[in-house]
Amino acid sequence: MIKEYFKDVFSGIASLLRGMKVTLSYFVRPSTIITQKYPENRAELKMFEAFRGEVVMPHNENNEHKCTGCGICEINCPNGSIEIISKFEVGEDGKKRKVIDQHIYRLAMCTFCGLCIKTCPSNALAWGQEFEHAVFDRTKLTKVLNQEGSTVQKGVKE
Amino acid sequence: MPFNIYDFSTFTQWIHEALTSAMSPFWVVTLEILFVGLAFLLFYAVIGLFLVYAERRVCAFMQCRLGPNRVGFQGLLQTVADLIKLLFKELITIKYADKLLFNIAPFLVIIGSFLALAAIPLANGLHAVDLNIGVFYIMAVSSIGVIGILLAGWSSNSKYSLIGAMRSGAQIVSYELSVGLSIITMVVLAGTMDISEIVELQRGGWFLFKGHISAFIAFIIFLVASTAEINRGPFDLAEAESELTAGFHTEYSGIKFAFFFLAEYMNMFIVASLGATLFLGGWMPFHVPFWEGFNTVMDWIPPFVWYIAKTGFLIFIIMWFKWTFPRLRIDQLLTLEWKYLLPFNLFNVLLMALLVLLGLHF
Predict the structure, then answer these.
(1) Domain regions of chain B by residue span
(2) Residue B66: its chain A contacts at CB < 8 A?
(3) Which among A9, A26, A35 has the least Cβ separation from residue B62?
(4) Is B69 part of the contact surface with chain A (CB cutoff 8 Å)?
(5) How far is Cα A6 from Cα B112, in angstroms, rounded to an integer?
(6) Smallest CA–CA separation between B187 and chain A, in Å?
(7) Residues A80-91, mean pLDDT to the nearest whole number
(8) Number of helices (H), then strands (E), in chain B
(9) What is the CATH number of domain A54-152?
(10) pLDDT digits (tens, 9 = 90+) for B261-308
């Protein structure tokens, strides 16, 4: 009984000291600090891969994207952030094909659910890592994702 | 004596004589009271603000964060900015609150810590009142704060405030016992309750070393119990923001809230300085017997620096407690006091009495 009481006291003190050792080790080593000084470290700041900054449409070096203009992303978007304006183009083989004129993405309405990216059959959309979206005019939040004069990459299934 | 260059009593004596030669004794006393009051007000505000900042930084570093670092150098002016914000805020009075008590409560809390500060020697001769029962006085006036806390909880007419205040009351009543007994242990060793004499007795070595085992146990108990007495984590059940929003000061806003906040930090400072005075020798430099060279070097460091360093060390330990341990439940709190601290303490007083009687201390 008495033995257990003292055992309690000393094991209690030992475990408290163990806890205090952990916090002290963090206190004396500033290298463990995770917080970053944001505006100062803008140049070297790199967001992690899974970060959902905005929806982008990757283009390759020939200014080609993979979007076929099927409209699945537009249908899937729960709050209508995406609008696809398509046009018809005559290809080399003389056939008329439907291609996108403008892939409009309204950042202001986007909830970053990622359904458009998930459901895109040709993987034309991706997450961008840009997060400084503040602007003075909200019309600037309506973006056209396909670049000027871009075409569909060859071999993308329609 | 190498001490005299840092002796403040010559300076205060000089002021007193200059005033006496210029005016009647009545005005001298009035002016002196005003001076001391102003000095303490300033000291109180500066220390309180700095402690809030220090706590936020210490907490941040222990949690792998940076803490406030934008306002002023390394964020030093952050709490000043916070205070200015609080000063501009509206003082909300609760409709069904007891107006008189509601308004008195923050002042009672702050008066308690103010009175306690008076009896603590900040440096050699830098002492507002040198009472011959200084230790007893500090114990007595520091308990006034709990009345303020209880009144704040009661008059707010809010369940959170009331529960917080009741918890705080129960906690202070039980932990005051432990603080008192550990202080009694040191009084037994010192043989006096006069704080300036206690400091003087530690010239040859601090009481922590003089009283060895018994003083060490008393020191640990004092640290734990006084942390509980000032309602700080891990004993902050009176605030317990996850359960009671903010405990007894839930309904307060603006500068009245700032008073509670400041008083909490000043109580921490007072407890730490009392601990530093009783166990670590107050403003007395660190002396090792027979090391004359070492002792002279130590004497060159001003007493005020020693005092602040020791107090700061104890404050750091109290902060360290807070940011390491999770909050206790009320039953765990009372178990710790009545089942562990109190028996140890009673035994420790006996042990200290034996040590003193048999002359086993240094």
Answers:
(1) 12-88, 92-358
(2) 33, 35, 37
(3) A26
(4) yes
(5) 37
(6) 26
(7) 84
(8) 16, 0
(9) 3.30.70.3270
(10) 888 888 888 888 888 888 888 777 777 777 777 777 777 777 788 888
